[in-house]
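$ fold --in a.seq
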Amino acid sequence: MARVSQEHLDARRRQILDGAARCFARNGFHATSMQDVLKEVGLSAGAVYRYFSGKEDIIAAITEETFAVIRGAFEDAARMTPPPTPDALLGRVLAGVLSGQVHGLERRTFAALVVQLWSETLRDGRLAVLLDEGYATMRAAWAKLVDAYRSAGVLEGDVSGDDVARTMIAAAQGFLVQEALFGDVRPEMVENGLRGLMSITPQKIS
């Protein structure tokens, strides 16, 4: 019997994950059965169970890949030298996350899947660990970015680097939710909005 190449195994695993992601994005995790996944990917139960022990295992794999896409966009932006201002940086992050098709999904469908994954971490400890690890990595990367802003003399005050990092992450998460619910989130929109907020001059209290 001829050996199956690693390339074939990887392609088959990719086929299962992409098909399952389409099912989950369309109907949600709990309304999607393994039979739905099998029908979507066009494979037998035996072929799918060769790669995954069940639906929960598939969800975990999709979660890990999806969070890695988001984390990678943050980390790539944070490594830029010199660092762009927060408005340009966040626009670049969202462009990276929403550009192209992840799991074969259009951008709004992908954003909807991300929101579902976040919700699922509230009940699944395995997924919560994946989210916590990614979140901690992003916070650390962006806290270092705050240090770079200070070194460049463009950030004043003694605000905590972690506070700034969490605020930037929250803004990106919020725009992903907007894309999932309403669509039409564009990087330039994010940049313009943040630039406008950054231009506000606090009124001095007499």
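$ fold --in b.seq
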Amino acid sequence: MPNIENLRKQAKQYLRWHRERYYPVAAQIRSILGRFGGLPDSEVLETDFKLSDAQELVARKHGFESWPALVKGIETMTASTAATSNKPVIITAEPQLFVSDIEVACRFYLEKLGFKIVFSYGEPPFYAQVFRDGGRLNLRKVGGPVFDSDFRARERDALSATIIVDDPKPLFLEYQSAGVTFHQALRTEPWGARTFIVRDVDGNLIAFAGGQN
């Protein structure tokens, strides 16, 4: 579970990066805070950016609309779990996918799968994060092909990530209309889940799974 004090430190770090004109933070500010949308990195870093803006950035990255909502949410979660467990809690996971070209990969996830860019880092870019709703994927550029033919011959169905959705069928139909390449069409698994698997431009297999019929 996130610690409020640590989140405050994160907000101050974002504020410091902005003041120091640390360019990677500009992409995060632009993608998460709508009022900075459309501005190039240089203008984002020249625009007035206060601690309250940094706190809102942290809140939205954790799925809350505002800093007060984040604080209240953490306090509520803390109160509900304190009596039962003091163990660390895993909040989410962000699978890392290897790609041969960040820009080509990002274009696929945006135009075909309906994701949006959280940030893209490097000149030229070599690392990026994309998201759709609660799902986030990290994309990391590597030299050469991501998967060779020998690997796929041995591990034909090896997945790079699994994304849980409320109802896979509408998403499958959306991707079908977009001309996405499927490794596996929508089907009902023996254990009851509805799944389909997408193949991205680098051969990564992304499974989408849910429970609706």
